[in-house]
Amino acid sequence: MNLTIRPANERDIPLVLSFIRELAEFERLSHEVEATEQILRESLFGPRRCAEVILGCVGEEAAAFAVFFHNFSTFLGRPGLYLEDLYVKPAYRRRGIGQALLGHLARLAKERGCGRFEWAVLNWNKSAIQFYERLGAVGLKDWTIYRVTGDRLEEIAEP
């Protein structure tokens, strides 16, 4: 298999959006996708970039993508790398592409002086959990993720 991993560029925005929609369908969350090409253009390539994307390509075909960004550990006093999403198209699974993307991101984290590399996984996604555990990743049992969006975010933001 001829796998190349490369950063996405602005011309890849339609491809990135298609990956997002495919991932959302897989996670049974299509109803939550609000991303558009314009939103992605601003967020990924605008003046204040919020995240980065890498693509895993087999030959000319984009087989996988990963979206990541930097966070910060106050305890370590260093940045971390947070993997927001990693998705491999079904036809390309079990070929080492996910592991290759994770390895690429781990090397990037080291190059950038990050003290940790982390992500979240849906509790029902047993195959992903097993995959991550085989790599040596450890689930954080004492932590729960909280989220505020939409109207509630607006309400909280009011002075």
Task: Characterise the protein shown here.
The protein is an alpha+beta fold and about 160 residues long. It contains 5 helices and 5 strands; from the N terminus they run E-H-H-E-E-E-H-E-H-H. It has a single domain, classed as Gcn5-related N-acetyltransferase (GNAT) (Aminopeptidase). The protein has helices at about 15-25, 35-45, 95-110, 125-135, 150-155, and strands at about 5, 50-60, 60-75, 80-90, 115-120. It has a 5-stranded mixed sheet, sandwiched between helices.
CATH topology, by name, is: Aminopeptidase
| Helix proportion | 25-40%
Strand order across the largest sheet:
1-2-3-4-5
Percent strand = 25-35%
CATH superfamily: Gcn5-related N-acetyltransferase (GNAT)
How far the N terminus sits from the C terminus, by CA atoms, comes to 55 Å
pLDDT under 50 segments (min length 5)? none
SS element count, helices: 5
Query: Compute the gyration radius: what is it?
Result: 16 Å
CATH class: Alpha Beta
Give the biggest sheet.
5 strands, mixed
Helices and strands, in N-to-C order?
EHHEEEHEHH
What is the overall pLDDT average?
A: 96
The assigned CATH architecture is 3-Layer(aba) Sandwich
Which shape, going by the Cα principal axes?
globular
Number of domains: 1
User: How many beta-strand elements?
Assistant: 5
Query: Structural class of the secondary elements?
Result: alpha+beta
